[in-house]
Write a structure and sequence with these properties.
Elements: E1 3-7, H1 11-23, E2 27-31, H2 34-43, E3 48-52, H3 60-71, E4 76-81, H4 90-94, E5 99-102, H5 113-150, E6 152-154, H6 155-161, H7 166-178, E7 182-186, E8 193-197, H8 203-213
Parallel strand pairs: 1-2, 1-3, 3-4, 4-5
Antiparallel strand pairs: 6-8, 7-8
Length: about 210
Amino acid sequence: MASVLVVDDHRRIVNSLERSLRKAEHEVTKAYSEKEATELLNREHFDVVVTDLKMETDTSGIEVLKKAKELDPFIEVIVLTAYGAVETAVPAMKQGAFDYVEKSTEIDDGVDVYDKIVETVHEAVVHRSAHKREIKESAGKSILDELTKSEVLSFPQLFAEFPFPSLTIRKALAVLLEAGKIKTWIDPKTEVEMYQRRYSGWWDKTLSLISQNS
């Protein structure tokens, strides 16, 4: 079961998709605009976002995608495109969308589009869990090892220490924060993001907790 945010300015589509996702035992939150989706993303946690590409503007879906990824680098976003307008999904895929689905009444082999979206949500949830485990086993361990030695590190120090892209480091830190293994704050003097491990002798418990949350 996953927590899914569904975003579309057509209420019929949102309500139909909600029924299909709830039937698959997912928790569903609905939004009918980019603005409403942004407010929900700021307040609540979601595993997957399913968003129409074009709502208030032609880029509404892209903005929802960007906001979701900014707040949670592990979140998976599925974009919905108009039938026959696959090219509109290309910018979203470049921005990190997990996949896209055309909003037709039927797709290949007569499969209902809502069933296809539910299937894609399931694939996204599996990918999210695998991604978190991968980060835990690589960058996460290296960062925690470094925190064990240093007690407190700034984000620029972390970036300098490890040959990982900035986003990869943030993903590792997101896992560790979620598991309660580190705390973070902004230094009021330097306005630099700081990280500190919560206690020593943490590693076995960290692996266990992160595995449970993956």
